[in-house]
Amino acid sequence: MDDDRVERPGVAARWSSRGNTYRCGDEQSSCLLRRRSVAASRTHQRPASDRLARVGVATGHFRSNDPKGPASDDDVWGGLLLSIALTFIIVRLYVENVVSIAVILFWTAVLVLLITTVVFLVLWWRRVFDGNGTFWALVITVPFAAVGSIVSYWLLEPPLQGVLEPAKAALTADGIGALAPYLIPLILQLLGALASFILLIGSVSFCAANVAAALIESRAWGARWLWRFVFWSGRWTTGRGVIVAFVVLAILAAFSASGLAAEWIANLQDSVRGTPPT
Is the Cβ–Cβ distance between 94 and 186 less than 8 Å? Predict the structure, then answer.
């Protein structure tokens, strides 16, 4: 939505609580009515949120000056063994808590849908809602929430390579070492759950950052601390290409959690071994 400006005789401008207009109260100054888009509001707030990061980089808080020596063979093998042990532990925790993970993921998806609805209502109320790229970027968070809810179901009942129940039985009967035959499908499912969580949290941050930027520009209540903090928290989702990254995460989550990735890897292994796929 383009900026529309109208000069009015009057006073110092004060933003209206309803609509994208300024109220005039002083008789000795002029009032500039201005309509802002969400994209413009977001662009205006990004430089202000960069100050803390620039100060940290300038003072060297984010850099380490400790010298690094060459890695020995013992360090390499020790790191490899530690990685394998951590992988088994993480997979075991996932198998034992997959139901809780699926429930949390589902309600996070519901939360994304609710937040998206609230953002639409707030921006419509403030009349700073443009109909271009930002509109469609906010709309696309709705299917992201759908992806999260579907992934939460696939964690328990994947359409392909469903190994959760055999893995639970093996873990109960023989301990953590019995998870070895099921590592690849379980790791891929865990990757799908992680990608879905990042996608949903990113969607929430994206919606919150956009509505906070609009409220800051409209000088809403709490603009000096509350909305600036909200925008700063979700600023990482306001850069270019973030929607493309979200789409990639959605595809990765569905591809991994559905068992399709594990099925593809299993077929590839069968073709290398020369055995027909099962």
Answer: yes
